[in-house]
Amino acid sequence: MNASSTPVPTDTPEARKYNRTRRWLGIAEFALGLAMLIVLLAAGWSGSLRDLAYSTSFQSYAFAVFLYVLMLAVISKVVALPLDWYSFHLEHRYQLSNQKARSWIWDELKGFLVTVVFASILVELLYFVIRRFPQYWWLIAWIGFLGVVVLLAQLAPVVLFPIFYKFEPLQDEELKSRLVRLGERAGTRVRGVYKWHLSEKSKKANAALTGLGHTRRVILADTLLENYSADEIEAVLAHELGHHVHNHILKGIGIQAAVTFFGFWTANWALQYSLDRWHIFETLSDFANLPLIVLIFVLLSFLLMPALNAFSRFNERQADRYAFENIANISPFVSSMNKLAEQNLAEKTPSKWVEWWFHSHPSIARRVAAAESWSRVNAG
Ligand SMILES: [Zn+2]
pTM of the entire structure? Predict the structure, then answer.
């Protein structure tokens, strides 16, 4: 109600340029993936790959599916590699990375192997279901997929993340007791807080709530633990606890359930259409149609991106509000936000449409403004 507001933060040309480049990189990756799927289908290359897989599979359908997925994974990786390399370079150009080229190559290799293992298991199951239940395959596949999502959410912090990063339980007694106090006030308990050794690879700071049930935990990057005051770390912890208290991981899975239900239904429609009208596949279980199924999901997630990001920003605001209510005052929250923006070279004031389409978090300027207005209302 009085006009004296904090000055509107401005972004450095460096931050603007870095984020613009990252955005274009994301768009280029998406366009390249889309083009690859379309070419595979339209030029009939998917069919050629299927024939090649069959001819080397000793008449085994399951083995042919595996070979086909493997070839597709290799092709996708080769196509994506130049942009991946560019992305690695970009982080170095802006002094945001600590990762050596050798470690990056090792990560790429591990990522590729994890992808092949997961993709081949999922695709084998998918075509097993399509063959056994050609009429209701999409419904059964959807239920199975949900099971996988829940399992992955549970396993990710203990199986998946440690493939790429080291984690250890937080040793800092003072921080631990602060967290216990935060939890007690909220009438909840987070089972663990882990130190995430991010500094081996990045100069950026980060924190997250991960896992489900027994694996539920807050992970705090060492880059954050080392450079932020105890009050600032508490503010970050309070935000993550807000995600926990508001059940954001489970709600996210719920949204994914709705989206993939529609996705599998649409995929079934597209497969039937391609059989009846285009005659490019022989049967429903012709796994050369896999790029079509992937295409449906890629297009769907692209179209839904603004809605999914809006949902995510809503959750972030909720977690922020939870933090305001549970820390002594908002100034460590505000200073941690500004530090994070600086350290991660984030744009504090992205343009409206960029925020609307691309950002899963409200801009730093908005989060700081929300904190200040909350504090004005609740101090008065
Ligand atoms: Zn958050």
Answer: 0.89
Q: How far is the CA of 130 from the centre of ligand 1 (A)?
A: 38
35 Cα: distance to centroid of ligand 1 (angstroms):
33
Distance 147 CA to ligand 1 centre (A): 25
Q: Which residues contact 130 (CB under 8 A, 6 or more apart)?
A: 137, 141, 284, 285
How far is the centre of ligand 1, averaged over its atoms, from the C-alpha of 338 (Å)? 15
Q: How many C-beta atoms lie closer than 10 Å to residue 340's C-beta?
A: 20
- Between the CA of 365 and the centroid of ligand 1 the distance, in Å, is 15
- For 98, residues 6+ apart whose C-beta sits below 8 A from its C-beta are 199, 200, 201, 202, 203
10-residue block means of pLDDT along the chain (380 residues)? 56 92 94 96 93 92 96 96 95 92 95 96 96 95 95 93 94 85 75 90 92 88 93 92 91 95 96 86 90 96 94 97 92 94 91 92 95 87
Tokens encoding 136: 């209701």
The order of strands in the sheet holding 207-210 is 167-169, 193-196, 217-221, 207-210
Sign of CA dihedral 369, 189, 219, 208: negative
How many angstroms separate the alpha carbon of residue 185 from the centre of ligand 1?
20
